[in-house]
């Protein structure tokens, strides 16, 4: 084997984790009690829920989606707004052990996607007439470990 062929073979065996595309898959906003709700005062309760999902598209290509749902309710339980953002990305993963692929899909990819979702949530809520909602960072590794522990107990 020539040196050039050896170099090519080594290059093809290198681990690959790359972003192919980041896109906004879904966005919804509901303000069910507008415009009257803007005349009221009071501090709403903000609830946030984050979920992740991954699917294999084809050999070496995976789609990962981080869905963030933010609900604001008044003290009387009326919904101020409901905002849901599904931020997705297509990732190429090659020459990586299967155990590590799962970790990349559950932790690394969501860590890349979450800042985009967070910005979309903040921007959408602000554009709808409400003060910005700044979401705290998420520890996707802890979420993954909790899911693994729950799966082990089931």
TrEMBL record:
Coiled coil: none
Record localization: Cytoplasm
GO biological process: protein folding; protein tetramerization; protein transport
SUPFAM superfamilies per record: SecB-like
Record's GO cellular component terms: cytoplasm
Keywords: Chaperone, Cytoplasm, Protein transport, Translocation, Transport
Domain of life where this protein originates: Bacteria
A molecular function GO annotation: unfolded protein binding
Pfam families: SecB
Record family assignment: Belongs to the SecB family.
Record's function text: One of the proteins required for the normal export of preproteins out of the cell cytoplasm. It is a molecular chaperone that binds to a subset of precursor proteins, maintaining them in a translocation-competent state. It also specifically binds to its receptor SecA.
Name of the protein in question: Protein-export protein SecB
Gene name as annotated: secB
């Amino acid at each position: 084997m020539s040196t050039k062929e050896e170099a090519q073979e080594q290059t093809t065996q290198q681990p690959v984790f790359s972003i192919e595309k980041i896109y906004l898959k879904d966005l919804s906003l509901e303000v069910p009690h507008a415009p009257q709700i803007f005349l009221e005062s009071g501090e709403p309760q903000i609830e946030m829920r984050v979920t992740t999902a991954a699917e294999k598209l084809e050999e070496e290509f995976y789609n990962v989606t981080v869905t963030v749902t933010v609900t604001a309710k008044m003290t009387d339980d009326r919904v101020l707004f409901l905002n849901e953002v599904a931020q997705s990305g297509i990732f190429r993963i090659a020459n990586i052990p299967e155990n590590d692929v799962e970790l990349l899909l559950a932790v690394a990819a969501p860590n890349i996607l979450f800042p985009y979702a967070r910005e979309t949530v903040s921007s959408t809520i602000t554009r709808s007439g409400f003060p910005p909602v700044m979401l705290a960072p998420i520890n996707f590794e802890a979420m993954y470990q909790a899911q693994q522990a729950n799966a082990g107990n089931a």
